[in-house]
Amino acid sequence: MAIKEILTVPNPVLKQVSRPVESVDDDTRVLMDDMLETMYAAPGIGLAAIQVGVPLRIIVMDLAGKDEEPAPRYFINPEILEDVEELLLWEEGCLSVPDYYEEVERPRRVKIRYLNYDGDEITEWAEELYAVCIQHEMDHLNGVLFIDHLSRLKRQRAIRKVQKAIRDKALEAAE
Ligand code: NI
Asked: Among this protein's residues, is 82 annotated catalytic?
């Protein structure tokens, strides 16, 4: 396994629409293993392939608590089949927008269909944090970031904050 570089805003690659995976094979699984390792190292709870520069419809996730056993989940070509009108307000963050958190409103429950690590088709309802996370990650597959759900002012503030943090880090390294 290998840790990959996570792209951050405003990298234009993050705006790309990812394409479906044609067949779930060992290459797909190597990529998912690397994505999971990258996500754990960050650390984060969800990661889409485009965040490591690969425009494929693949997501990894682990929603286990700090004291729980790791529970990795893998989603290939996920689709939302149904949602509910009831919305949930949740403070979101993103490895591509480091150290920035803001509340976003999304449906509280979504019915999803996807292929898992073995390429088996799964259909299930996701709710609460799982629903928030899968919708956030599926947005990435369509080139949408959680800050795109915010006002233009907040979005620009988030991008500036990330750019400044990267500049500061580069300056520190140069000293
Ligand atoms: Ni994200």
From this structure: no
Residue at 96 is within a domain: yes
How far does residue 164's CA lie from ligand 1's centre (Å)? 19
Q: Model confidence over 78-114: pLDDT tens digits?
A: 999 999 999 999 999 999 999 999 999 999 999 999 9
Q: How far is the CA of 91 from the centre of ligand 1 (A)?
A: 12
Let me know if residue 3 belongs to a domain: no
Q: Which of 142, 132, 90, 91 is nearest to 109 (CA)?
A: 132
Mean pLDDT of 118-138: 98
Collect all residues with Cβ–Cβ distance below 8 Å to 32 and sequence separation of at least 6: 58, 60, 74, 117
pTM for the whole thing? Answer: 0.95
Ligand 1 is a single-atom ion; what residues have CB below 5 A from it? 94
Q: What are phi and psi of 25, to 5 degrees?
A: -130, -170
Q: Report the domain count for the chain.
A: 1
Identify the CATH number of the domain in which residue 146 sits.
3.90.45.10
Whether 70 is covered by a domain: the verdict is yes
Per annotation, catalytic residue among 82, 86, 137, 175: 137
